[in-house]
Amino acid sequence: KDGHTFWSNLSATLVRDPQTDALVETIVIVQDVSERKLIEAALEQSEERYRLLAESTKDMIMRVAPDGRRTYVSPAAYALTGYTPQELMAEPRINIAYPDDVSASVEAFHKAMASGKNYFHVEQRILHKDGHDLWVSLSFTLVRDPQTGALVELIGIVQDITERQQAQETLKQALEKEHQLNLMKTRFVSTASHEFRTPLSVILSSTETLLNYRAKMDEQQVTSRLNKIVQQTLFMNSIMEDVLQLARIQTGRFDFRPEQGDFSAFCKEIIEDFATQPDQQGRVRAVITPTPVRLAFDQRLMRHVLNNLISNALKYSPAEKPIYFDLITESNQVTITIRDEGFGIPPDDLERLFEPFYRAKNVAHIEGTGLGLSITYEAVVLHGGTIKAESTEGVGTTFTVTLPL
Ligand code: ATP
Ligand code: MG
Q1: Which of 88, 248, 301, 367 is a Cys-bridge partner for 73, taking CB atoms 3.0 to 4.6 Å apart?
Q2: How far apart are the CA of 375 and the centre of ligand 2, in A?
Q3: Half-sphere exposure of 309 (CA within 13 A, CB side)
């Protein structure tokens, strides 16, 4: 009457004469439904908004029925998993969880159900259609019937966190490396100060003697003191050199210069050097193939390797025991073994020998810095080879080095 229009629901019932079937009257019910129409329109609009939201985000959004069927999957699924939403909604269902991680979300779901929570979150890997795996974060909201509390559906957001995970992993590794470096520094400071104490005190006492009593000393006594100073300075210098050498190799700043040469002749030469040292005469028994062994190797590094392995064998076995040096060539590698019948290495120490400054407990009375084998190890690895130690305490030790030809 006032001129406005409204939506209505009209139901009409036609009443007919039972005999003639002629229309008698029509009963009409007019119901005002404008409010419902408004709500429907608003709902449609809001649904549209949420659909847009769901379809435009990079995260994959899905609705899952209580029986596990996916009733909605947003288009982002394709970029994330390689499957289209249709493929993911089809039955039989495609399982995208990484085999080892399947239980993570299932467990979280059951826990949420049991504790009456409306939300759960897990981080796990999923399997992309092309076979690679990626880390995702899964956040699920449990929608329940307000009356009965029964589960109606789950709404999930799946987010790619591979990059974050990788960044975390890199960070963890960097921290671990930093930690190792710190440990090494600490050990270095304590060992270096300990190692430097003896030569420093010898240098100091010799210098003091020279300063105070030079006038009363003969030429030979003066020379002997000066020699001691030189010797101890050289020793300190060699420790410093070793440390710097190791640091250079470990930080990739070593100028690695392999050159073709006869490796068997090189070994013979080094063993001869040992034989000429007065206290080592005759101790090294060597079996080396007479034929030349052509190999590309860095002379400075290999000299260190052989010197350290031979001097260790000599140093850590009684003076009357021989040590055995063998060089064997196979089709694709050279194997060197250096065996002694000395003190051996306690099993606990065996696996840590190649760490810088690490020394076994049973040889504390013999001088050394524990740097030799760590440089040896790095040198062998630079040549693409391997090194291993076998030892029985009180029986002897064998070091085996292989180098590819
Ligand atoms: P450096 O070689 O720097 O003078 P070092 O000989 O103590 O000192 P490495 O050559 O690195 O250091 O050896 C590390 C440790 O390994 C030694 O201190 C010793 O405990 C053990 N070791 C090495 N070779 C032998 C061996 N042939 N027999 C018994 N122990 C050994
Ligand atoms: Mg050594």
Answers
A1: 88
A2: 10
A3: 28
By the 8 A CB rule, do 28 and 8 touch? no
Rounded to whole angstroms, the Cα distance separating 199 from 279 reads 22
Q: How far apart are CA 323 and CA 75, in angstroms?
A: 72
Atom 8 (ligand 1) nearest CA: 368
Give dist(CA 113, CA 15) in Å, integer.
56
Ligand 1 neighbours (beta carbon < 6 A): 308, 312-313, 316, 340, 342-345, 353, 359-360, 363, 368-374, 397
For 288, the token pair is: 């080396």
Question: Crossing angle of helices 299-315/372-382, nearest 10°?
Answer: 140
Can you tell me the distance from the alpha carbon of 303 to that of 375, in angstroms, rounded to the nearest whole number?
11
Q: Which residue has the tokens 């005002």?
A: 32
- Angstrom distance (rounded) from CA 140 to CA 122: 9
pLDDT averaged per 10 residues, the chain (length 405):
91 94 94 88 86 86 93 94 95 89 88 91 93 93 91 93 88 90 77 78 93 93 94 87 84 88 94 84 84 92 95 94 94 94 94 88 87 94 96 96 95
- Give Cα separations from 273 to 35, 325, 373, 398 (angstroms): 106, 14, 20, 21
Characterize the bridge pairing of strands 386-392 and 323-329: unpaired
DSSP state of 352: T
Distance between alpha carbon 187 and the CA centroid of its chain, in Å? 23
Which of 314, 353, 355, 391 should be mutated for ligand 1, with most atoms under 8 A from CB?
353
